[in-house]
TrEMBL record:
All copies of domain NADP-dependent oxidoreductase, residue ranges: 25-264, 331-405
Keywords carried by this UniProt record: NADP, Oxidoreductase
CC terms in the record's Gene Ontology section: cytoplasm
Keyword Transmembrane among record annotations: no
Protein name: NADP-dependent oxidoreductase domain-containing protein
GO molecular function terms attached to this record: oxidoreductase activity
PANTHER family: AFLATOXIN B1 ALDEHYDE REDUCTASE, NADP-DEPENDENT OXIDOREDUCTASE DOMAIN-CONTAINING PROTEIN
Amino acid sequence: MEHKSQIQVPRVKLGTQGLEKRHKALKQLPREQVQLATKFGVVSIDWSRMEVKGTPDYVRQCCEASLKRLDVDYIDLFYTHRVDISVPIEDTMKMGELKKLVEEGKIKYIGLSEASVDTIRRAHAVHPITAVEMEYSLWTRDIEEDVIPLCRELGIGIVAYSPLGQGFFGGKAVVENLPAESVLAMHPKFTGENLEKNKILYARFAELAAKHGCSPPQLALAWLLHQGNDVVPIPGTTKIKNLDANIGSVVVKLTHNDLKEISDAIPVNEVGGKKELNLLFKFTYRVSKFIRLGEAHNKLEGRTEGAVLDKGIEQEAKNALRTVKTGNTSALKELPREQVQLATKCGIISVDWTHVEVKGTPDYVRQCCEASLKRLDVDYIDLFYTHRVDLSLPIEDTVSMSEDLLLLFFICN
C-alpha cells in the first residue's frame, strides 16, 4: 500500500512550521506522492480579535494566492479554517467558488474545520466534503456525540487537531514547566486551579503509558488511532525527535479493555477549563448552537440543528407554543407555517468577550433579512429584531428599512 506524505500549510500561522515561506521544500518531493492541505477563511487574528470571512470572492482569492505562494498547480485538500456564519454555507460552497475550483482542477477535495452538524450536512449536499477537522483528544471528546456519527453516515474523514490536548499530553515538561511566553500560559486549561486539577489527570495517564511501554504522547495518539480508520490525528511539533516519537504511536496496540481504561482515566467532566482561548472559543462549532425556544423562557434549550431541536420544536408545537426564536432549523418544514411565529435578529457583525461590533445601516438590514430568509428557507419572518442599537446612525434610518421590508422592529436596549 502506497503511503502519501500529508503536509498542512495554514494561511494564518498559529505556531506552525510556516511552509508557505519555504515552498521550495515541496519541489524536492514527487508532487503525486504529497497530499497538500491548506486553509482559508481567517482574515486577521490577534489575541483580542479574530475575523473570519467566507464570501465567494474571498474563497477564490485565497486559493489563487495559495497556489502562487506554494508554486503548485493544485491543492489536494482545501479547508475552511472557520465557518463564516454571516454567509450561508451554500454560498461558500457553491457560489463561493469551492465547487468551481474543484471543477477547474485547482483543488481536489473540500474540507471544513470547526463546523456544526447542520453546516456539514448542508455543505455536503452542495458538494461532497472529504474531511472535517475538529479538536479531538482524550480531554476534548464532544464531537463523539454528533459530528463523528454524521461524518460516518456521510463517509467523511475526521481530522483531529490538537490530538495531544494543546500539548498537555506531550510530556511532564509541558505540564510542570510551561514557559511564561507560551500562548498556553493564557489557556484556561493551563492556568490556576484548572492546571492543578489537570496535573492529577496527567499523573494518572502517565502511569498507564508506562504500563503500555510507551510515552504519554504516544499513548494519547494511539488512543485516537484506535477510534477508527477514518480518524487522522495531526500532532504539531517543531522537533524531529518528537516527530519520530509521534510516529511510534502507530505500533502501540490497544484492546477494547485498554481503550476503556484509558478513557476512564481522563473523564471529560473532570477536566479543568474550557476548550479554547476566549478569542477562539466563539468560533468553535458548539458556541453558536444554543438557543431558547419560546417567549415563556421554558428552559428548553437545544442545538440549532439536528434531532434535539427538531423534537423540541415539535413538542412545543404540541404544547401550543407558537413562537420559535432561532437562527436556523430544518424543523420548520415539519410544521404548518401559519402556525409558527418566527423571530430572528440582525445587527451584530462580530463579538468576542471584549468587543461587540454593531451595524444598523439600511443596506445591512436588508442584507441580513435576505440572508435569514434564504438560510431558513421561508418566505417571510414574523418578528425581526435589531440585536443591539447602532448608535452611530439615527434609529430612523434603521427603522426606515423595516418599513420598506414591511417588517416590524422591536428595539432592544
